[in-house]
Amino acid sequence: MLGRLMKYEIQSTARLFIPLYAVLLVFALLNRFLNPFEVMETSVSFNLQSIFQALSVTVYFILIVAIFVMTLFIAIQRFYKNLLGDEGYLMFTLPVKTWQNVTSKLLTAIMWYILSAIAVISSIIVMVGPKDFFEFLPNITEAIRRGFGDAGFIILPLFVLVQLIHGTLMIYDAIALGHLFGKQRLLASFGMYIALYFITQIILVIVIFSLGGTIFASLIHSAEPTGTQLLTFLGMIGIVAALLSVAHFAITNYILKNKLNLE
């Protein structure tokens, strides 16, 4: 049933993302032929062509920002509208468990986060050209290897993934908590998010200075922290984020299962 819920979510959101990805790639291809950065690199006077080049690259960067903003907005909107809005009456009459509804929203949101990043990277490859991109790529991999070691290629993506999951579940938790209020639920959800954010920061500070005090001190006093030190510190923060994610998921699931009020 979880697979069916995800299929429904993907079908409902793909019609929004796919066209946006396509437009981004079109403008990347357009900028590939227009070479708008030529205007910045040369002292050629502005004319109609240079204005068009500037507009094209401006739209391209606006599209990149719009994709990431829209990804976050859709993740929030789908959870709120589909589970706590008018559609909630239908969703909670289906023969599925509450945790499956939450999980389908979470996994679909994470999928679109990743696909949005892939779409942006693909557009960059199209715009600068595969040859130039893959000639520069070793510099990035070497910087990661030099800063974090080979383990960084595993730990860093996992760290980003955990942070995405934690951030999304904290939003879900805030919305669910805000929904417990009789009036001004959206405002209450915003207030609950601020409260959860500060609680998270307090927990991180406590963990860093208690469990990770030695690691944190070594990072501050090291002129050039080792890869092991950096990965250990990130791993500690990642574990805290993972535990908080479990707590956010449990609270959200409990509220939707036992305290739901769609009136």
Key descriptive features of the protein:
mainly alpha; 0% strand; 84% helix; 10 helices; single chain; 263 residues
What do you see in this structure?
The chain has 263 residues and is mainly α. The chain folds into two domains: 1-128; 139-263, no CATH class. It has helices at residues 2-34, 38-41, 48-84, 88-91, 98-128, 130-148, 152-178, 185-210, 213-221, 227-258. Helix 1 (2-34) packs antiparallel against helix 3 (48-84) and helix 5 packs across helix 6 (130-148). It starts with a helix and ends in a 5-residue tail after the last helix. The model has no long low-confidence stretch (mean pLDDT 84).
How many extended strands?
0
Domains, number? 2
Structural class: mainly alpha
Output the number of helix runs.
10
SSE ordering: HHHHHHHHHH
What's the short story on this structure?
α1 (2-34) packs antiparallel against α3, α7 (152-178) packs across α8 and α8 runs antiparallel to α10 (227-258).
